Amino acid sequence: MVNELRWGVVATGGIADVVTGDLRLLPDVEVLAVSSRALPKAEAFGARHGIPRAYGDYHDLLADPDVDVVYVATPHAQHHEVTRAALEAGKHVLCEKPATLTPAHLRDVVDLARERGLFLMEAVWTRFNPLIVELGELVRSGAIGEVRSVRADFGFTVPHDPDHRLWSRRLGGGSLFDLGIYPVSLAHLLLGEPEVVHAHGSLVDGVDAEVGMLLGYPGGAHALLGSSLVSPLKESAVVYGTEGLVELPEAMYNPSRMIVNGVERRCEQEGAGYVPQLREVVRRVRAGETESPLMPLDESLAVMRTLTRAAEQVGLTYEDVTTG
After folding, report:
1. Distance between CA 296 and CA 120 in Å, rounded?
2. Who has the most CB within 10 Å: 83, 162, 173, 281?
3. Partners of 257 in beta bridges
4. pLDDT tens digits for range 123-156
């Protein structure tokens, strides 16, 4: 393998901007190429981040033989299309969450990555936050006894605009798949895939404005979760065990402090918080591995199943908008 792992970035929106900034903090990594549907946008993004190659079509970036890894940062509805094309082009892929909008599309790219022996991971940065990693270890060690309940929310107010990506059904908008994925992923990390999913929410223009979820597990353990685009939820989480509790007082999706049975623990954030996730991709690709044990593909499939079960109960579906 070459000394530097060479990355291509597909799309130039806000998340691509922040993640690319963190990517450039890693040693032995070169952000080689960027693509946008509008070439001037790709060129401007490239100039801002010191990226030498700009393309006006992601197919051109995928055809670049020097690109090793592709970071997919398009709107949700294009994730499946771009990820599949990248894998077909022989590229390793880190795709923003949700990796796709339907279980069938996720299974499609997972099977393709495994068939081709390529690395694929859904970019759920929460799973790589040092405190979340520590939380998982605490729970597995029995530090708070048996987990009986997880309560977590993530929401903020977004003025309604049918052209905004969060309110646009054709772009895969809504609170559940963009924000609710974080509380659901946390519940999966600590309790696994639920037996029962109950969800209630409201729809606006075919996307969910808010969703409340109750996930049920054998023996009565449960998770109470929420996501919203119409109210400022606390963005906190509490994990209740039979012998104690853990609190994530703010930014449960990327916490900087955690309170374990009343004792506070803190971590320093690297860059904007995406560095641990990106470092994991580099480590696994260099080692010739095709998945991360911190965010394995089977876990992405399980979380997708839970999200879909909740979506169906509030009348949310993307089956007819995830083509290509």
Report:
1. 9
2. 83
3. 266
4. 999 999 999 999 999 999 999 999 999 999 999 9
Is 91 designated active site?
A: no
| Whether residue 98 has a cis bond before it, omega within 30° of 0 | yes
Question: Among 41, 91, 97, 234, which one carries the catalytic annotation?
Answer: 97
Q: Judge whether 54 lies within some domain.
A: yes
Q: Is residue 232 one of the residues assigned to a domain?
A: yes
How many structural domains is the chain composed of? 2
DSSP strands (E only) in 156-270: 196-204, 207-216, 222-228, 237-241, 244-248, 257-260, 263-266
* pTM of this structure: 0.96
Show the tokens assigned to 141.
């060690």
What does the pLDDT look like over 77-96, one tens digit per residue?
Answer: 999 999 999 999 999 999 99
Helices (DSSP H) in 89-168: which residue ranges? 103-116, 130-141
Give the CATH number, domain containing residue 211.
3.30.360.10
**Cβ 148 vs Cβ 142: under 8 Å:** no
**308 shares a domain with 168:** yes
Could you tell me if 105 and 13 lie in one domain?
A: yes
